[in-house]
Please model this.
Amino acid sequence: MAELMQSATVLSVIDLTPRVRQLVVLPKAQKLSFQPGQWVSLKLPVGTKPPLNRAYSMAALSTTSGELTLVFDRVPEGLGSSYLYQLKAGDELLLSGPYGNFVLPQPLDREVLFIARYTGLVPIRCMLKALYAHRDTSPILLIAVAPAEHELLYHNELLSLAVTQASFRYLPLVATGDEAAVRLTMTMVQPLIEGTPHVLPMLCGTKDFVRPLRAFFVEAGYERKEVQVETYD
Ligand SMILES: Cc1cc2nc3c(=O)[nH]c(=O)nc-3n(C[C@H](O)[C@H](O)[C@H](O)COP(=O)(O)OP(=O)(O)OC[C@H]3O[C@@H](n4cnc5c(N)ncnc54)[C@H](O)[C@@H]3O)c2cc1C
Model:
């Protein structure tokens, strides 16, 4: 089936952290039905050969009226994210989708270990929303690494979730740069996976973060395909 490209209206713009912004957009032609973890492709009128295609994952579950919640960080000198940063309520965007296979398997037969670097948390947040909307009690550990304490995304929401959901554990970490983020994450994960039944690792972020961590799991005895990844660049 041909992909449907449609316009969407920006309904609201809010800052979640000093460098992370949320846009709620409403597709005008057709409501999108998506699985938590999937993304839409935005066609942005910038760059030398517009449109510039940029992918953004849904941060929240679909609503009856069809709004999509997109959350992104401002990449220094990033063409796409800088364009999105100047949008206001009432502006329009072109998008298509949903796309993607970074979704939870059904049924969940083992503990899930989500590992996110910064806005890599976006699709995972959507999956968590879905799990707890269905009162799922599967064991989940989330490791979220941010470049600074005030950049920990959804921090209060995740702390509350860890208090109210006995099966959910949340480990926020702060590290500047991918290398430090990888090192710190490995230090935390090593004792958790050593000599225990295999968990389901689901990793999301830029390649410099995700790839060494996938290699780390493979080194620890996981098959490559057991490690689910979504890379942003
Ligand atoms: C499947 C998928 C889902 C995505 N979902 C999201 C999302 O929900 N939220 C979000 O913020 N981004 C998401 N991205 C990344 C997004 O599509 C853009 O790549 C990002 O906004 C940077 O685009 P840009 O044009 O501003 O930067 P570009 O000009 O393309 O510069 C990219 C450069 O910045 C570096 N970089 C630093 N931070 C990031 C980052 N967060 N993402 C990508 N590159 C980065 C890259 O390593 C690369 O060198 C997703 C990407 C994919 C492939």
